[in-house]
Amino acid sequence: MNPALEPLMLVFAGEDDLPVPTHALFLGAEPHEALKAWPEIVGWQPFKPLADAWETAGFKRVDTPEGKWPVVLVLPGKAKDETLALFATAYDLLEDGGTLVAAMPNTAGAARFEKELAKAAGHIASLSKNKCRAFHAVKDGRWNTATVAEWRELGAVRTIPDTTFLVQAGVFSSEHVDPGSRFLTTHLPRSLRGHVADLGAGWGYLSRWIDDHCTGVTRIDLHEADARALDLARKNLADTDIEVCFLWNDVAGGLHHIYDAIVMNPPFHSGQLTDVGLGKAFIHSSARALKRGGKLYLVANRQLPYEAELDAAGFAWRKAAEDATFKILIAEKRAS
């Protein structure tokens, strides 16, 4: 559970604090037992595992937040532009007199973002607990709307300089083409054929390269857990000549097709923490989803221990390349 959830709920816990609203919108929604007592709570959550957890807990989820709400709860991400843009979205979705309530871990810059919100809203109230901070402000007509407009612009879709790729604050590699993915393309064979999967596809860089260079590929499936990145991928691959499928999927939970080849630059962070378990889960999902003799093309930071996992998953593999930061592992599924 996100540690900021507890202080977020405490804002509504005491007699002198905010009353539980008749209905509320939760941006970055994650379930908490206290929310089950609320009359109506609707959540927006772009990250598939957390969206599944929200719905499994019995709460309503929307793909696109809209309308006007008396309370908007916000659990922001860790990127500055993403957080400020989310504040602007919350402001736009509040009815007049409504309250924006945000909570963040101190390690994610809670104190800094509390000050940022105060720049726009003026007076805010806050509390601290569990090394997190919750703070809230009323949309009372005195907000600095120029500041909110600047935040809103931070969340706009934009183009990476010197490319045609569309990106957005908060998605992976939103400022430049990821160097690991770029390194992988220098070692992907143009002879790739058939049905290919791109795991953790992000906004579509690897799939775009495959579409542009591998004429034998008949279909690409992009598996991505961040719905925002997947929407960008749809735009970045809008003009492909082959079949492309965009799958909002938690790869760690498995794949639902069999592939001739898989490419991936697996994530290795969960929140702010390194989590090599994500990459390991990607490897095991790949092993189950490849044809016999199918190839896996993986790029990773040099220090990440994926070689033993390839062995455990039944792959025959080799290190195809390495530089000061990254390594490329090419693995083949053994006949079983």
Automatic annotation (TrEMBL):
Residue stretches making up the Methyltransferase small domain: 163-329
PROSITE patterns referenced in this protein's UniProt entry, alphabetically: N6_MTASE
Keyword Ligase annotated: no
BP term (GO), one: rRNA processing
Keywords, comma-separated and alphabetical: Cytoplasm, Methyltransferase, rRNA processing, S-adenosyl-L-methionine, Transferase
SUPFAM superfamilies the record matches: S-adenosyl-L-methionine-dependent methyltransferases (SSF53335)
Any one GO MF annotation of this record: S-adenosylmethionine-dependent methyltransferase activity
Top-level taxon: Bacteria
Keyword rRNA processing: yes
Stated name of the protein: Class I SAM-dependent methyltransferase
Natural source organism: Luteolibacter ambystomatis
